[in-house]
Design goal:
By secondary structure, the protein is an all-alpha fold. The chain is built from five helices and no strands. The chain has helices spanning 2-22, 24-31, 38-41, 46-52, 58-76. The chain is elongated, with a radius of gyration of 14 Å. The two termini are 23 Å apart.
């Protein structure tokens, strides 16, 4: 059971690290006036990527996802 919990948190940590790496892609796309493309798809879950394709500010959404993870982690580990 403990291994399952550790495994779950490991997957979440990896996903957030990939989101941090993805932060620069929307900046580049914005500066080039380009829409969200498959470059982001490689760095996140498919559901996140599809959501970003419909959002006006993908960079801000990625920041929200990272902040949500940090908030959950802070709450989980007892502040």
């Amino acid at each position: 059971m403990i291994n399952d919990i550790e495994s779950e948190y490991r997957v979440k940590r990896i996903a957030v690290m990939r989101l941090v790496a993805a932060l620069l892609v929307p900046c580049k796309l914005y500066l080039r006036s380009e829409p969200v493309n498959s470059e982001l798809e490689k760095l996140m879950f498919l559901s996140q990527y599809l959501q970003l394709k419909t959002i006006n500010n993908p960079l801000l959404q990625i920041v929200f996802w990272i902040a949500d993870y940090l908030q959950q982690s802070w709450t989980h580990w007892g502040q």
